[in-house]
Design a protein that fits this description.
With 354 residues, this protein is an alpha/beta fold. The protein is built from 13 helices and 13 strands. The chain binds zinc ion.
Length: 354
Amino acid sequence: MGIKQHQKTPSKIMIKTKEKSRILAVKEGYGVAVDLGATNLKVAIGLRNGKILAKKSEPTAAVSGSKALTRKIIDRINGFLIELNLPYERLMGIGVGAIGPLDRKKGGIVKSPNIPHYNFISIVQPLTNEFNVSVHLLNDCVAGVVGEKLFGLGASEENLAYITISTGIGGGVFVDGHLLLGKDGNAHEIGHMVIDYQGRLLCGCGKRGHWEAYCSGRNVPNYTRIIFEDEGWKSFSKSLLNSYTEGDPNKITTKDIYYGAQQNEKTCLKIVEEVGRLNAIGFANVVNVYDPSLITVGGAVALNNRNLVITPINKYLNRYIINNPPIIKITPLDENIVLYGALAAAFNLVNSQT
Ligand SMILES: [Zn+2]
């Protein structure tokens, strides 16, 4: 009896809260936020104050073809509006944080190295045609830093950077309170900064020596194999990685390496430290170029391995910076940071002039 009551009460409260938010959405207007990433497509409905009313995440690759992907976004939005019983005329705008590179003039995503099976993905025109509201397209990491400034740790910061370490590596930056965009909207393709002039690894973009080619979730295994080549494969055969991969170094995954490090395995810890040192070079470049007082960090690799990612960056940063060090923290907005930024863009809350 008691348990049943406990089960009933929160759901009643939830329905009430949901209805309250819906009424607020009708009264004050609501926005649509889209996070189009390499791995997941997330669509959400939210309020101006950052409250998210509904959210759905699905694999980006679930549909094939650029047009089908845009259609999927439109269908998802329409589905939410029916489900939540929200009138179209109260939709204030749509914000999209998308994997780069972007072509803001054409309003879409240029063939991306991290989703190579899609050609140009048109976003702004089809969404505008369907919903007849302003559509604001931002790089996903630029949306991330907007989310941090509006709804996270960046409220009082004029100089703020957000860095994601995920399938790829990217960033977004405010300098003196201004959001930097660039001529095509790609001012912060920081994952493609050169950190190895010898260019030992080829990046997904086709160029050599880029940060992302060594330290992104997709590419840490490539860098690991270079470490073993340099230091001898003996340490591989003795390490946990040998058993995780049944002795095949081509099967090494980033997950295995960080998992091994979490078990305090010596070889995995050493790899994580080396990856961290290269990350520190990337972070130092951001510090030297943009001079932020705060850098927040997100993306699946960082969110799942908080200390293993942040500790070596702080340890090695001083080797490479000339500016005063910023505070470096994991974002409290977790995996929703891009959605928050897209929501802020939907309400045109930033000086992005998109
Ligand atoms: Zn690159």
